[in-house]
């Protein structure tokens, strides 16, 4: 494998990043059970090393300029046009059989998330957010390296928070030595609002832009910032927030446990669920989506 190929796929599969999120933010309800402890033990070293290498690449290459380049490339949405159902089939090509632990495909994670939201009686648009939130991972199928699709997101163009996972890896980022980008506010104004802040590029921003005309603002925040852990879990970047962001934070926090803690080895019964989701998709989304 060439260096570039290796750098594109440091993880055995995309779930390794999410498994590591569970290690960092374990489910408070499952934490006391023996099963959780046993599973926890399985996360030891080799998997951790691939995750570390993944973050080293992510923190090294996600520069302000890289983000602009990817926004220009992907936010034109001129790659593909599909129905939602074809898009799920497309996304499911991401399933990786080199890892025996990955038994659920992408659609199943999305359905487990959306079904957990539905069971708790949240509004139907939030169920749809659960169903769509990782659709942006199709970026991998357009040839994007893993570090430009998944991983915690963070603002670019201003100083990095030490609340971001593996902050030491930012020293290899070219922006780290840029006198403007490394000031507290960087290219931004104090409390300018997250809508004016460029986040590191990945599946969150991409799916937000894809869905932005179709969902309520609360749902759009869930999509756009679900991987911004240093904000919604660690409280960093208050100096860039405005009142609107502070109001929306509770919605992002409401969504996060459904993403992290709804995983179960039991696959949802798609055949049974499909009629409900067909209606839901029809209610909010156009017949085809542009990628
Ligand atoms: Fe995600
Ligand atoms: Fe997810």
Write the layout of secondary structure elements.
Layout: H1 3-8, H2 15-24, H3 34-41, H4 45-61, H5 64-74, E1 81-82, H6 84-91, H7 106-119, H8 124-132, H9 203-211, H10 217-225, H11 229-232, H12 243-261, H13 270-284, E2 289-290
Antiparallel strand pairs: 1-2
Helix pairs in contact: 7-8, 7-12, 8-10, 9-10, 10-12
One fe (ii) ion binds next to loops.
Report what the structure shows:
With 291 residues, the protein is an all-alpha fold. Helices cover 48% and strands 1% of the residues. It has a two-stranded antiparallel ribbon. The longest helix is centred in the last third of the chain and has 19 residues, at 243-261. The model is unreliable at 40-44 and 97-101 (pLDDT under 50). Bound molecules: fe (ii) ion (FE2) (2 copies). One fe (ii) ion binds at residues 109, 133-134, 259.
What is this entry, summarized?
The protein is mostly helical. The chain is 48% helix and 1% strand.
Key terms for this structure?
about 290 residues; iron ion binding; single chain; binds fe (ii) ion; two-stranded antiparallel sheet; 2 strands; mainly alpha
The order of strands across the largest sheet is: 1-2
Question: Which structural class do the helices and strands define?
Answer: mainly alpha
Distance between the termini: 29 Å
Helix/strand order? HHHHHEHHHHHHHHE
Sheet with the most strands, sense and barrel status: 2 strands, antiparallel
Tell me the total number of β-strands.
2
What percent of the residues sit in helical stretches (DSSP H or I)?
40-55%
The proportion of strand residues reads under 5%
Number of domains: 1
Q: If you compute it from the alpha carbons, what radius of gyration comes out, rounded to the nearest whole angstrom?
A: 18 Å
* Small-molecule components bound: fe (ii) ion
Mean of residue pLDDT values: 91
pLDDT < 50 stretches: 40-44, 97-101
How many distinct helices?
13
Shape assignment: globular
Protein name: Inositol oxygenase
Cofactor: Fe cation
Keywords: Cytoplasm, Iron, Metal-binding, Oxidoreductase
GO molecular function, one term: iron ion binding
